[in-house]
Design a protein that fits this description.
Length: 690
């Protein structure tokens, strides 16, 4: 029974977390609309409302009373917002973004009903309630500009009330159409009316009239909104359906809106419900999705890898029978079946990878609140611009990416974007811009964090590295500007003269780089003083399976990810030159640094090696050629961990089984880049190394 309870609890937590993530993503869109001074789409506010409403319901079922209390208060607040009774402003957005963090923290508690949380939750609920008591800043409620009547307003559904407000704000005129319908065919008649009116007006609601109708018919008052002149509407509808009457605007607006009352008995069925609000649609949505543990997908991908090895072994066995005439027809059929199996296997692998993919918006949506809070703490004005939030990447990468990106965002606000006074003095807009951009590039995903702040002072970076003992004065003189910028990735580096809550503790950018490298990625910096800084993170789309070039080095097999390879060309030792201690070759007029993997890995050179190859790889804005003994071919490989004992060995991402008792070490290209360039560019002092 305990196992069942634990499974149900985990299912609830997973669903609750999904709802909070969806809420966070939608709030980011709401904030973007607010920053552009645009009225958000009604469907967006409805989605936010649904997420909170559903969270409230399931929290109550599983005893998370604090989550339920906050969700209930937010539900009332959002209800006022979607009905137009409340305006979107900074206080409202602050409360909504804060709720996401509170939900996440409360869901992580071992005791969901901890009394220690009650005072803080009650205080937050009071804040939410106080925001909800503030009326909209419109010049009176739009509903009261027209003489609609409180009796009519009292029976409108929430959706109808929302559409009515929206039409009035858009400058549409309101009309009443009195139409009589035969009771035996009322549904068909109303549908026909909708078809006729669709191009000229929007139907808000149908209400029964107390005046017309008899035992065989009913008169309905149809509330319309239209931009078409009254004369045209009358000419179009009066002869066929009934009288059209324009609703006049009121001269004196009421100061207190009428209270909504319950819908009178007998009229509920006459009020149309929008399809997206129906419970049936909600149930369909739930039925069409399933929650899967990522570890099960890993296991499934391993099975696919084993199937690929079996396919290779079968192909090898078939090749052994080639040449025997009596197997000619059978071999042809087996070859055809083998190709079909290969296609289906590739399709299965692709589908599994698709299931693992999630949008980067899951990470980006967390930053809107951080940016608002950090900007307020530093008395700065910062606008967050997000593009590419729908760019998909492996779920495991998304989970590991949050902390590095969080530091980059905070760093941009703390160090990069100037204060309002400084920006105005420099003739810059008072509001700084922080941009998050994501896009696919080949088999990689690229994420850019860019600000229009003060940029980096390369010489100051060099002086700081020397003063902190991270770099000798002699070594610093030969650094290029790009190498000076890269100094920020050294452990313990910081130019901040005072420690802040956001950054500047000297444990930031080096940790960012380490985390990115661990995911098989690379990070680079571009910065112009007075213009801004752009930090680019390049990562593989997935860590589950990679396309790799199998190479031989010192008689051993290695796998090099194709995503990092630009080309492979024959190598001649005679073309090698040495510049500033680096071995380089010239390709198409460009100087290319090279790394011979045989001595790099401490392997013995193969005697009588007729020809070798240089594999040109690129990471970010850098290129490096790896010299290998031979090219074996391309394969899709599944990387297996080297275990805790060997996990700290630099340069290797894992190992893979190539079948036929062949194993290959998978090279960690970003780590090799980092090791090569850091060892040849920046020579730390002996004290720093120790």
């Amino acid at each position: 029974m305990s196992d069942l309870r634990d499974n149900v609890q985990q299912e609830f937590l997973a669903e609750a977390q999904e709802l909070v993530e969806a809420l966070s993503r939608d709030l980011l869109l709401l904030d973007e609309a607010h920053q552009r001074a645009e009225r958000p789409d009604a469907s967006l506010i409805n989605e936010i409302f649904r997420s909170v409403h559903t969270l409230k319901g399931i929290a109550g079922m599983f005893g998370y009373k604090h989550v339920g209390a906050i969700a209930h208060a937010l539900e009332d607040l959002l209800d006022d917002l979607r009905l137009g009774r409340l305006d979107i402003g900074d206080p409202l957005l602050d409360v909504l973004f804060d709720s996401v963090e509170r939900f996440q923290r409360l869901l992580s508690l071992e005791d969901p009903q901890s009394p220690e949380e009650t005072p803080e939750v009650d205080a937050y609920v009071a804040i939410v309630r106080s925001i909800g008591n503030q009326p909209a800043s419109d010049d009176g409620d739009p509903l009261h500009r027209y003489a609609i009547g409180s009796a009519v307003l009292s029976v409108l559904t929430e959706y109808e009330e929302h559409r009515l407000r929206a039409c009035i704000r858009e400058g549409m005129q309101l009309y009443r159409l009195r139409a009589t319908f035969d009771l035996t065919a009322i549904d068909d008649s109303i549908e026909a009316l909708r078809d006729v009116i669709r191009d000229d007006a929007e139907i808000i609601t149908y209400l029964p009239s107390l005046e017309g109708g008899n035992d065989e018919s009913i008169e309905l008052v149809v509330l319309l909104a239209s931009r078409v002149p009254e004369s045209e509407l009358k000419a179009h509808f009066e002869g066929q359906y009934g009288a059209v009457e324009a609703i006049e605007e009121q001269t004196h607006l009421p100061t207190i809106p009428p209270q909504l009352t319950s819908i009178p008995p007998g009229t509920q069925s006459l009020l149309p419900q929008p399809e997206e609000e129906s419970g049936q649609a909600s149930l369909r949505s739930v039925a069409n999705s399933v929650r899967v543990d990522i570890r099960k997908l890993d296991d499934l991908m391993n099975v696919v890898g084993e199937l690929a090895l079996v396919r290779t072994a079968v192909g090898r066995a078939i090749s052994g029978l080639d040449g025997d005439p009596k197997y000619k027809h059978s071999l042809r059929e087996l070859d055809r079946l083998g190709r079909g199996f290969e296609r289906q296997l590739a399709e299965l692998r692709t589908r599994i990878l698709d299931v693992r993919m999630v949008p980067l918006g899951q990470v980006f949506s967390k930053f809107a609140r951080i940016v608002r809070q950090a900007a307020r703490e530093h008395d700065k004005q910062v606008r967050l611009v997000v593009t590419g939030a729908n760019t998909e990447v492996d779920k495991l990468i998304v989970e590991e990416l949050a902390d590095p990106l969080m530091h980059l965002v905070r760093n941009a606000i703390d160090h990069g974007i100037e204060s309002v006074e400084t920006r105005m003095r420099l003739a810059k807009p008072s509001e700084g811009t922080l941009a998050l951009n994501a896009y696919h590039k080949g088999r990689n995903v690229v994420i850019e964090v860019e600000d229009d702040g003060g940029g980096m002072h390369a010489q100051k970076l060099r002086e700081t590295a020397v003063s902190r003992g991270l770099l000798t004065a002699e070594a610093s003189h030969d650094l290029t500007r790009q190498e000076m910028l890269n100094l920020v990735f050294l452990p313990g580096f910081s130019t901040n003269e005072s420690v802040t809550d956001l950054s500047g503790r000297g444990v930031g950018m080096d940790v960012v780089k380490t985390n990115i490298l661990r995911m098989g990625g690379v990070v680079s910096i571009a910065s112009e003083q007075g213009i801004g800084t752009k930090i680019t993170v390049t990562l593989p789309i997935t860590l589950a399976i990679i396309r790799a070039l199998i190479v031989k080095v010192g008689g051993r097999l290695f796998a090099l990810p194709i995503s990092a390879i630009r080309e492979a060309v024959p190598f001649s030792q005679q073309d090698v030159r040495t510049i500033q201690g680096r071995k380089v070759i010239t390709m198409r007029g460009e100087t290319l640094p090279i790394c011979d993997l045989t001595p790099w890995f401490g392997l013995r050179e193969v005697e009588h090696q007729a020809s070798r190859f240089v594999i040109v790889c690129e990471m970010g804005n850098r290129e490096l050629g790896f010299v290998v003994d031979d090219l074996v071919g391309q394969e899709d490989v599944i990387t297996k961990s080297l275990g805790q004992t060997l996990s700290s060995v630099r340069g290797f991402a894992g190992a893979t089984d190539l079948g036929n008792q062949r194993l290959a070490l998978v090279l960690d290209t970003p780590a090799l880049f980092s090791e090569y360039f850091s060892s040849s560019e920046v020579q730390p002092s002996m004290e720093a190394r120790a």
